[in-house]
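Q: I'm writing up a methods section and want to include an example of the input and output format. Could you take the sequence below and give the corresponding predicted structure tokens, formatted cleanly so I can copy it straight into the document?
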Amino acid sequence: MEEGQIFDRKSIAIHATALSDVVCTFANADGGTIAIGISDKTRTIEGVDYENDKLNDLLRVPIDYCNPSVQVKTEMIPCRDFKGRDNHILLMHIGANTFLHANHANEVFQRIGDKSKKLSFEDRMNPNAKIDARNLTVKEKTDYLNVEKMSIDTLKNRIKIKGYQQPTEEKLLRIYAVMETNRVFSIQDVMKELSCPDSTARSIMKKLRDLDVIVSVKGMGKGKYRFK
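A: Here is the clean output for your methods example:
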């Protein structure tokens, strides 16, 4: 099944804060299903059975990371993972609600096709802010979304202009690849992903700021960022 208005797939490695964005976007639109345990980048079947701690964190997302909490129904679907093991895919079935849900950063997104549209403060105050995206034409969806996610080509071009060497470029592109849209991350996350010391992680974060591809996230403590 292709990703779209009512379906999305996510890796078991997704951060809880990033999953909260997806849960809220579905609840704020027409509802939908999230299949967890399938890489949304490579479509690799990962499963969830061998990541108990991670799975428990993700199961708490609708309650702990969404405001107000989102009611979901869960279902475990048997599968064979990419290592040949018996495993399961977690399905989160989310219903459409008549009110808006905010994510962990008190932001409100709505699902339009296979993308998310961030609502402005004025939109959130408008009782008619929610729309039925299923009835929009392709052009209407494009006009409503307006702003596309920064592409990897844009990042590569900016790296080229700065003249960064290949090892640095590889680190920057790796962080871009693993930190999904709207995922909040810090220097500690960069250290963990790159298995590097604090000084290297700080250097990478500074370069990302210099490239103007990340923005500071308010209200979640010092040093929190996400990609534009």
